[in-house]
Design the sequence.
């Protein structure tokens, strides 16, 4: 089932999300709905706060990036078919040089900006079967994971911009929260208080 994506300005996007256990109600259905919602919006990642749930789950499918001709064949191969569910994730470390990449977010449509992030991450998490993993990722894959991880920490990519950049996009962000934007997928806007 395709769920509405929560727009910029909703307080749920600013909460540090809570861990869940394997008895979380209808977890498999929730994960399936999150995949449906993400693919419907042509996303490469989606975090539970983006559908209004302040819990520590996010998903990543980096396959759409694998066709990028600016990447090395190794990077393309790493991104192709990488599909994971991250539950109760903890960022163990972020290392290496910071590098800029143009990021966007399903909760902040039509805003794309260069964001600087560290090259390599080490992350621990549980998969959908609650099996533990500790893994290291680099490059674009690390960045996609960092972006989604930020969501469960109540952080948005716009927080990482310079104060000048933030001032420049302030009006656009205000319009997004008011629903003054055209999007190809279902969204829920905080300033339109219908059904709340």
Sequence:
């Amino acid at each position: 089932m395709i769920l509405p994506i929560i727009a910029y300005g909703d307080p749920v996007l600013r909460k540090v999300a809570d861990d869940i256990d394997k008895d979380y109600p209808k977890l498999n259905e929730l994960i399936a709905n999150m995949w449906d919602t993400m693919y419907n919006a042509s996303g490469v990642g989606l975090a539970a706060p983006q559908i209004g749930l302040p819990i520590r789950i996010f998903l990543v499918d980096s396959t759409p990036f694998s066709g990028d001709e600016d990447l090395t064949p190794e990077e393309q191969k790493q991104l192709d078919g990488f599909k994971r569910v991250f539950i109760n994730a903890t960022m163990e470390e972020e290392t290496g040089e910071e590098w800029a990449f143009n990021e966007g977010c399903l909760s902040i449509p039509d805003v794309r900006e260069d964001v600087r992030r560290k090259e390599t991450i080490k992350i621990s998490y549980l998969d959908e079967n609650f099996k533990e993993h500790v893994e290291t990722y680099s490059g674009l894959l690390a960045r996609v994971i960092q972006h989604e991880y930020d969501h469960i920490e109540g952080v948005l990519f716009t927080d990482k911009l310079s104060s000048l950049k933030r001032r420049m996009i302030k009006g656009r962000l205000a319009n997004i929260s008011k629903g003054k934007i055209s999007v190809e997928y279902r969204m829920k806007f905080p300033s339109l208080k219908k059904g709340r």
Observations:
- The helical segments are 27-40, 73-79, 139-152, 163-177.
